[in-house]
Fold this protein.
Amino acid sequence: MDADWGVEFLQLSLAPILIGTLAAIACALPGNFLLLRRQALIGDAISHVALPGIVVAFLVTGTIAAWPMMVGAAGAAVVAVGLIELIKRLGKVEPGAAMGVVFTTLFAAGVLLLEQSDTSGVHIDVEHALYGNLESLIWFDATGWSSLLDIGALAGLPPQLFRLAIVLAVIVGFMAAFWKELAISTFDPGFAQAVGIRTGAVGFALVVAAAIAAVAAFDAVGSIIVIAMFVCPPATARLMTDRLGRQVAWSVLFATTAAIAGYVFAGYGPLWFGSPYAVSAAGMIATVSGVQLGLACLLGPRRRRTGQAAAPQ
Amino acid sequence: MTTLELFLRALTLQAGYNSALVAVGAGLLGIAGGGAGAFVFLRKRALVSDAVTHATLPGVAIAFIVMVLLGGDGRWLPGLILGSAASAAIGLMGVEWITARTRLGEDAAIGAILSVFFGLGIVLLTVIQTMEGGKQAGLDTFLLGSTAGMLIGEAVLIAAAGAVAVGLVAILRRPMTLVAFDPDYAATLGINVRRTDLAMMGLALVVTVIGLKVVGLILIVALLIIPPVAARFWTERVDRLILIAAGIGGVSGFTGAALSAAARDMPTGPIIVLVAFALFALSLAFSPRRGVLASAIRHRRFQHRVHLRQGLLAMARGEAIYDRLTLRILRRRGLMRGDGVMTRTGRGAAGRAQLDETRWATARRLRADDPVLERYDGLTPIDQVLTPDQVAHLDSLLPKPEAT
């Protein structure tokens, strides 16, 4: 009985939990800096425009292999960022509105392309792009706990797991290497320039890192988790501490717990209510991270703005 | 019939009573969206409406579940709209509450509300799919909108609600304009700024919930954002901005719905958004004030004036000219011959440019602190700045040209 449970867990749940967790952390890490720079909605924009990128990649290559999709999505993200800048500069349009114009239009174009092209034979649709299919990432080769040490069986893990692990390593490396530059240029751009940091390049690198994380996670888990994980864990962490290092650590903790708890609630929660059907894991992970944020807004030790009481009357 | 004929029939409301009603409804929706969006845009809260639109999803799902549990038809549109309005209102209050009560910025609040409410909505949609009859709920049409197979009652409801929203924009336009431009001044006039802001977002919310069925909740925000941004290119006046935004929204809604009715595989929501974007792109390119083309022409004219002037001054001083553009301009105007020698008109123009430059230099030396003379830019002739008798007086002070 126990062994059966173990095999079922390894086959059906281990890979989604790991992938969900990796995706959540990969998005939450750059999310910390985006939040502090008031650019939290970049994740929102990137995940909207990934759809046309993926559809174009499919139309060009004719396959739904992962790498062309990711290149397509990343390309669309670059196009979107460029278009937003263009509209901002040429039309002197406020940034929020420029962003709104670009991502709704690109998303609409993606949907239209999808409807117009013959994609009936392949698994590519709007719903998939929105909430991924975490539940389908299963590990058939697992036969028991010993499979965790079996190279052959491990090779049968869903490829998204390895891609996300690589992307996460790249992002951790980027943040570790440029921690000082990121921190200084986030908190005091003027000082950063004075000490010779190229703040423009740092900001651009951050957006690129965010785009890589978003695209890799998007492929595995859909855009809802991506948007939620860019914003919610860092925002929750921001309400817990005043120190950057601790904020990042808290955000990783919140991202991990949201991913695991969300998956468990989605898969097993309905059973507790007597329903045999699971609900959307992606949606549930976003919901759990929202509950975390809600609690932090009510109870977080650093939830209030500082410095207002001291301001001159 | 070709697609074009079908499209023209739909445009002229001859493609059947139902699609005519849908097109009119989408047009009214667009007018209301553009009008309400104009204020949201001026108040710089475009992306708050994005959070509000995504926050409708859990309300739609809960309304469906409640209606089914009460033994009714879960797809009854007024019920779904009420549910969506309730949850969108909660989402809006959530954004305001997070921004006001915590240290988090508005962008974080928007992102959090948007993703969490949408995620919760998706969870509830999967719950509905497991319910009896839930498979045919068709609630996913609320994501991207669909007018195919719309009931006539629903189309009437959308058209009527769109008309009401247009009326609300007309009634509320004065206080909303004041608050959008100068909240402090509006407060001294006795306008409740907070309540006006709420009314403005409430109006955006009304447009959202009406538009759910036609445009879908992911894209409805485009009807609030794109028309005012496009309209901003055409005017500097707020009353015209509202009218133009409403017009652009209305044209987008009407044309988009007609196009979508005429052709296969043309989902209504995305088509409406793309029509709106096309109008935006046209405005960006061709607006006479702020458009790309107009500013390119302005830039080119300015460049020509600078090169012409500098070329003439160089000729007057007998300096050689190497700049290609300068040479081309001088030759094209018949001021210089192909071999680089001044023509008769060229000599006259060069003399006048030199005289003007000398007048400027003398005037600026004599009256260094005269603000009028700060308009010197090396291009404006001095007789456009000073009166003829001032110029004559100035000429009497000029260093006398040496006799030849």
Q: What stands out?
A: DSSP finds 17 helices and no strands in chain B.
